[in-house]
Design the sequence.
């Protein structure tokens, strides 16, 4: 993988901080952090960006019944010294709080931070194929091919938004072989994008789908993360 690509490095750092980079891909990136100043700086950038959201989120304590059920399931009635039991409960509380904060960081909007959408499309081996970003302020969708390669000379990859309701909407053709494309989309499409279920990529004729809907196989799907 070409970690010298700044867009790829930034996308992987974002996934690493959010927690969506998993398995062998996360292990490889953790090794890279020990060797690469650029990778560490990218992670620090995302930690600072997302960490600022915590200051505007209200605390939401879980119901007491949640702790009782977790305690019963984890300890299963085992008798422990009071100090050890309290330590376990505090550890469990810290873990649960971290998980809740991670979810809130991804899904909660934050005043004062730039808005945008990002999606990283990976294959079955967790190898990123495209990094796709959308800027609501300009109506621009930027796609960078990371590892994506052309299937055939007469075929193209087409990007589709999956709205919360209704059929897929085309967001244009995608680049291959390290290229970058930018498309301007209408305000109506941007409004749909804010509540979309995700993105999909199909294989179409060279000029794109002739029908306005996917006609070839859907090869990839990816969630959208709001910033």
Sequence:
């Amino acid at each position: 993988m070409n970690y010298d690509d700044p867009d790829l490095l930034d996308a992987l750092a974002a996934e690493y901080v959010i927690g969506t980079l998993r398995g062998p891909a996360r292990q490889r990136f953790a090794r890279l952090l020990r060797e690469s100043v650029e990778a560490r700086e990218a992670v620090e950038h995302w930690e600072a960006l997302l960490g600022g959201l915590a200051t505007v989120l209200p605390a939401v304590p879980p119901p007491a019944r949640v702790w009782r059920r977790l305690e019963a399931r984890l300890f299963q009635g085992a008798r422990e010294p009071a100090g050890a039991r309290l330590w376990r409960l505090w550890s469990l509380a810290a873990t649960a709080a971290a998980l809740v904060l991670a979810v809130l960081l991804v899904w909660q909007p934050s005043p004062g931070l730039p808005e945008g959408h990002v999606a990283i499309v990976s294959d079955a081996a967790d190898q990123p194929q495209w990094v796709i970003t959308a800027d609501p302020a300009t109506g621009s969708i930027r796609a960078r091919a990371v590892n994506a390669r052309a299937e055939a000379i007469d075929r193209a990859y087409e990007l589709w938004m999956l709205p919360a309701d209704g059929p897929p909407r085309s967001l244009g053709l995608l680049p291959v072989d390290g290229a970058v494309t930018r498309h301007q989309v209408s305000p109506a499409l941007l409004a749909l994008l804010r509540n979309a279920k995700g993105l999909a990529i199909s294989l179409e004729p060279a000029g794109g789908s002739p029908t306005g809907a996917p006609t070839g196989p859907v090869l990839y799907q990816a969630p959208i993360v709001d910033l």
Observations:
- The two ends are 26 Å apart (CA to CA).
- The longest strand covers residues 128-135.
- The first helix runs from residue 6 to 18.
- The chain has a mean pLDDT of 76.
